[in-house]
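Hi R.,

Here's the input for the 5'-O-[(L-methionyl)-sulphamoyl]adenosine complex you asked about:
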Amino acid sequence: MDKNFYITTPIYYPSAKPHMGHAYSSIIADFFARFKKIDGFNVHFLTGTDEHGLKIQRAAEVKNVDTLKFCDEISETFRKLSKTLNLSNTDFIRTTEERHKKTVQYLWNILEKNDEIYLSKYSGWYSVSDEAFYNEDEIETIDGKKIAINSKSEVEWVDEESYFFRLSKWEKPLLDFYEKNPDFISPKSRKNEIISFVKSGLKDLSVSRKSFSWGIKVPNNKDHIIYVWLDALTNYISALNYPNKENDLFKTFWPASIHLIGKDILRFHAVYWPAFLLAAKIELPKKVYGHGWILSGDEKMSKSKGNILDPLEIIEQYGLDPLRYYLIKEVSFGNDGNISQDRLEDCINSDLANNFGNLCQRVTAFAMNNCQGLIPKDIDFEKEDLVILDDFKLNIENIRVKIDEQDVNYYINFIVNSLFVANKYFNDQEPWKKKDNPKRMNTIVYTTFEIIRKISFMLYPIIPDSALKALKIFEINENNINFSSIMNNNFLEQGKKFNKIGILFKKIEK
Ligand code: MSP
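And here is the predicted structure with 5'-O-[(L-methionyl)-sulphamoyl]adenosine in place:
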């Protein structure tokens, strides 16, 4: 089995401050990366910033600062955000880095050598906000302004010499590829829109610009810069130091296991990127997953709409793990989701504070007073204990399959249900009434400890800090978390001292 796992987030435009949509892409990617890590995979997790193109050049001009300086500053805020979100990324790439430029120019040279690129002239519509070219039938006129129908962003007319990539040639190979690799475009619900776009006929794609300079130069024609999407998409291999084949990174991690992106940029990842790779004879990534949008008042959050929810403010007010938990649980993965402070507070109070935090407190307090502060020994599992404990063992393969299908909802529902069952078990078993039967009392406490341990292992990819705090009860640290061990019902060493922990989640007064 392939035990390497390479996951990427989109690289973010540093044209504005990070918002909740960016945080969402990154948190979900981190969830998968951490899960795979505790499941024994060698994980490479890449994120970064996409710094070229007219959009960035203009944003810097508005501020009247040097473009690279402008990028340095905002890229740094994204790097800080990765830390604030507690991402476990193993690399952070900037497209202004030398390692990236070298790969992009190398790829360009291969495409040119393979006769996949030719010089001509582009006359048509361009959206700077999307950094995308649009056909006449993809735009509409609203209040005298030309607007891209899908993204609602304004377009402008471009008329200039440009290199073209022979995209049209790849129509049939792409359709064949989608057919042979039915999971390549995920979720399934978004597959048809891409297939019908390709079937409707692909036109050759303009891949260079001449009228501005903020980009990577075309190797043999310094008047042109390379189209920002060809530049940006290449980050997924430049970060692996492609074409350096001696280097283990590319050999080990390419093709990527999954490119995680928002649905608005699926066309670039599911059509253009695979076409570039086919043309350069490089293997294609295994999967591209287009998640839904975080909505604010039913609209996609964006700077131009002024409806941005600031992740940093939410984290400041509630803490990071509640936000991570909330986004993973309440936004049904793959679909759009509305985020509300009210629901966030409900999640904290009911799932995190009551069902998880409070259970940890109750069991440790009880065991402190009744089991001499030790993980009980002299235990004998009965049927009602094993039913709960074995539920993890019975579902372990299923959970792995669901993770590989990006069924985040299944994963989180399994946890929510286990927490419910664990609380009910502790209440129903009433260990406080079993003091005259120490074996039974000890078994109930041990069983509940084991369930807390297993659930904390599963919570780790979602709320790493809080899960680790809970695991301090058993002196388990990050390196000892191993997903396979949720099968083990006797993981905790009997007779060992355990620790009391502080409150995990504070309840919110509503
Ligand atoms: N730079 C390109 C990506 C290049 S990848 C080779 C880009 N950048 S972006 O900053 O505009 O967006 C980055 C990601 O954030 C996209 O996947 C986009 O879908 C996601 N989000 C932006 N707003 C969003 C929401 N409101 N909700 C969820 N995600 C959205 O596109």
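One thing worth noting: The CA atoms of residues 317 and 378 lie 45 Å apart.

Cheers,
M.
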